[in-house]
Design goal:
It is a single chain. With about 475 residues, this protein is an alpha/beta fold. It has 3 domains: about 220 residues, FAD/NAD(P)-binding domain (3-Layer(bba) Sandwich); about 110 residues, FAD/NAD(P)-binding domain; about 110 residues, Enolase-like, domain 1 (2-Layer Sandwich). Helix content is about 30%, strand content about 25%. It is built from 13 helices and 22 strands. Strands 1, 2, 3, 4, 5, 6 and 17 form a 7-stranded mixed sheet that branches. A 5-stranded parallel sheet has the order 8-15-9-10-11. Strand 18 and strand 19 form a beta hairpin. Helix 1 packs parallel to helix 8 and helix 3 packs antiparallel against helix 4. The longest helix is centred in the N-terminal third of the chain and has 25 residues. The protein is globular, with a radius of gyration of 24 Å.
Length: about 475
């Protein structure tokens, strides 16, 4: 067994881990990163965020060419789906991103170790890979950034083909005739939208009486209506009892309903931390009942020299949240100031239209007894949205009733994922709705909807 010493060992090369490794290298640390997958980037880049967005973009182009260009005066002939080419585009996007991280590691002189990393006592990590002798790495500091994996239901057994997770759903070799999606969160709605656009019948089953748990209820309800018009069938308040492979397809049994026969089943009921088989017991770290590791404000665990970020600690499971935590953690190790404002972490669902939010929802403010003002403005009243022929949705701003400080912003509409950035920056600077209302927004742009919503907080929108 060889032994190598570093200033920092990062276990996991997902968005949190690789960003932390790069920033630590910039700060002068000798860094090692242990990752069991050949490609860097974690679930997000390999089989999650990036490939799903590539398919969403491609399927939207297909749908527009097939059914939406006529309104712009563009006549096209027969439109056909070339699914292998679409999947190849997705794979090329993934490859370019993961190779890019390889280049960044080389630039930062970060030592990359291929294999499964395990804690082996304080300051030690063993790297185990098939066909090679185990290596032991040592470091003053160790950062756990192993991310998460798909949560499963007790009587739903994936076979990796007919019944599967998002990993399989980004690579179906043919368009399913009928796809059942279990779970109406972001992943289920995004991938359900992809295959619906390509011709599948899509049925979404959700245990709760609403879609998008955790997002603003008013915005989620409006989004559901739009998605239903696009062809997604929603069965809310539905408890899935089982899903089994039968013949070439599957049968999904739900409480109080007739069994559903389908071609494919996508299980998207959330994610759980990747904290198993990490050797946590060797240093005395005990995860909570949900598999999460407790940390303090500097991301330190109960064991000196061992830190954790991202999906393995409490909080929302989002790639950019993990990135911010990775940066803050290693900057703290370097004696600098690192901080994450969890009230200003945006969340985006890349359906059509997109859904984006940051800060508090109306339900949370009411529950906490916080007095607030609300302003909203529809995209229907915006000139740029009309030119794009994308007029569904609105922007809603929630501001403190006394101070006018922005408490939350929720968007359903075109390019919501880009528009939310203004709200995030505003909240980081403690801005008021008045600050946005008095800031000039270029005309004609979708961003004008944000300005009008801010004006509406005090009931003085101009264009409605």
């Amino acid at each position: 067994m060889s032994e190598t010493t570093f200033d920092l060992i990062v276990i996991g090369a997902g968005p949190g881990g690789y960003v932390a490794a790069i920033r630590a290298s910039q700060l002068g640390m000798k860094v090692a990163c242990v990752e069991k997958e050949d490609a860097l980037g974690g679930t997000c880049l390999r089989v999650g965020c990036i490939p799903s967005k590539a398919l969403l973009e491609a399927s939207e182009h297909f749908h527009m060419a097939k059914d939406g260009l006529g309104r712009f005066g563009v006549k096209v002939g027969s439109v056909e789906l070339d699914l292998p080419a679409m999947l190849a585009h997705k794979d090329n996007v993934v490859k370019a991103n993961t190779k890019g991280i390889d280049g960044l590691f080389k630039k930062g002189k970060i030592a990359r170790f291929l294999g499964h990393g395990r804690l082996a006592g304080n300051g030690k990590v063993t790297v185990e890979s098939a066909g090679k002798a185990a290596e032991t790495l040592t470091a003053k500091n160790i950062l756990i950034a192993t991310g998460s994996k798909v949560a499963m239901l007790p009587d739903v057994k994936p076979d990796g083909k007919v019944i599967g997770t998002s990993t399989e759903a980004i690579a179906y070799p043919e368009v399913p005739k009928h796809l059942v999606v279990i779970g109406a969160g972001a992943i289920g709605l995004e991938l359900g939208s992809v295959w619906s656009r390509l011709g599948a019948k899509v049925t979404v089953l959700e245990y709760l009486p609403r879609i998008l748990p955790g997002m603003d209820t008013e915005i989620a309800a409006e989004a559901q209506k739009i998605l239903a018009k696009q062809g997604l069938e929603f069965r809310l308040g539905t408890r899935v009892k089982s899903a089994k492979v039968v013949g070439d397809g599957a049968v999904v049994e739900c409480e109080g309903q007739e069994p559903i026969q389908c071609d494919r089943v996508l299980v998207s009921v959330g994610r759980v931390p990747n904290t198993e088989n990490l050797g946590l017991e060797s240093v005395g770290i005990k995860p909570d009942g949900r598999g999460r590791i407790s940390v303090d404000e500097k991301f330190a665990t109960s064991v000196p020299g061992i830190y954790a970020i991202g999906d393995v600690i409490p909080g929302v499971m989002l790639a950019h949240k993990a990135e911010e935590e990775g940066m803050a953690c290693v900057e703290g190790l370097a004696g600098k100031y690192g901080h994450v404002n969890y009230n200003a972490i945006p969340n985006v669902v890349y359906t059509h239209p997109e859904i984006a939010s940051v800060g508090r929802t109306e339900e949370e403010l009411k529950s906490d007894g916080i007095a607030y003002k609300k302003g909203s403005f529809p995209f229907m009243a915006n000139g740029r949205a009309r030119a794009l022929a994308q007029i569904d949705g609105r922007i809603k701003i929630l501001a403190d009733a006394k101070t006018d400080r922005i408490l939350g912003v929720h968007i359903l509409g075109p390019r919501a994922g880009d528009l939310i950035a203004e709200a995030v920056v505003a909240m980081e600077f403690g801005a008021s709705a008045e600050d946005i209302a008095r800031s000039s927004h270029a005309h004609p742009t979708l961003a004008e909807v944000m300005k009008e919503a801010a004006l509406n907080v005090d009931g003085r929108s101009i264009h409605i």
